[in-house]
Structure formats: structure tokens, C-alpha cells
User: What shape does this take?
Amino acid sequence: MGAIRLTERRKQFLRGVLDLYRRTQLPVHYETLAQRLGVSKWTAYDVLRALEEQGLLARDYTVNRGEPGRSQIVFVPTPAAEALFSQVRPASVEGGDLVALKAEALRSLAEWRTLKPAKATQRIMAAIAEADVQVKFCTYIMALFLVHLGALSDSAVAVVRRLVRETPGVEMPLTVFVGIVLGMAIEAMGLGVGEELLGLLGRFLKSVMDLSQSEKEMLVSFLNDALADEAAAT
Assistant: This one.
């Protein structure tokens, strides 16, 4: 089988299905995706059918609770779809490339913080899906947690900032940060947001362990700068 070619539009829809499926572990109905992407349900269905024909989605059926006896068409990502967006190269990034990545991530974070949480999450998930190296993958997962932190109280943000600052080392501050924000988000906003972040937490912890020392140091620097920007804005 040759390389799969996707238009940017189809990539957007496939990322949406993958995100929903990873968060819920349930097949995705095209109307749910349509609402998420802001398109008509017929547009969503047509694009998902095209992705099915490319071998990236598989069709399934589920009972429609509102109409007993009738089933709904739903879609699940195939291994080919997972492979397409989950191949993150473990190669290290060093020197000036790390400096550029940090600056790019801070600029993007500043923009995402101006958006509504749902829109910001959509943008960041797209950045995560496109990450081609581990350190970029980890950076944008942290950006997502930082956006969720901004939705919490000023006192919660102050606690996180203090704990990150007081935690020694270059790996522990990162794991402390994501763990605390996840717990606070669940407490403040319910289990729904926890399901979204929990899957990313596991992927983050696994990935960050494989980073080089300089990559971890960049992540800590990015985190401290982002927390300082958050404090300055409040």
C-alpha cells in the first residue's frame, strides 16, 4: 500500500475523530464531529465516508437511544489512522532549534489564551497531532494544560506557580505541574475535562522521560515563562 495522501480538510476531520475516540474510547458519530468542527452533519458524513474509503476509518453501528430499534452509523479510527498521526520522531532537538521552539510555543500560547477554551483546545490538539519530535509533542501538551490552568482561580494558579518553582530538578517540575493541574481541573470542572486531559497526561509522562537533559531544561524554562506571563496578565 502506498503513502496515504490527505488534503488539509481531511486531516482536520481525521484529527477530530482521533481526538474524540482517544478521549472517550467510543465510536464517533458524524453529528458529534460536525458540532465540534462547526460544519453541517452532511458535510461531516461525506468526509468521513471518504476517509473510510482510504482505509483510515472503519464503520460501525450503534443503537439509537432516542429511537429504539434503529441504529446509527458511527466511525472508529483504524490502525493506519493511528499510525499516521502518532508517529512522533524521538530525535533530539538541541541549541538554537530549542530556543526557536520555545519562542514559537510562547507566541502560540499567548494567542490561544485569548480564545474560548473549546476553540483553544481544538487549536492545540491540532498542534499536538502535527508534532514531529518528542519535545514539541511535550511542549504543546503542556500548553494545553496551561490553557486549562487559566480557567481556574487566581489562588489555584498561585499554588501551581509556587509548587513548580519549589520543586527541584528538571523532570519533577514538569510532572508535578501536569499532575496538579489535572487534579484541580477535575475538582473545578468535573470529570469530563479530566477524561480529556488524563489520556494526554499518560502520553506526556511516557514521552518526557525520553527527552535529553537540554530538552527537559527548555520545557522547564517554557513552563516558568508561561506561568510568569499568566501572573502578569492577572
About this structure: The radius of gyration is 19 Å.
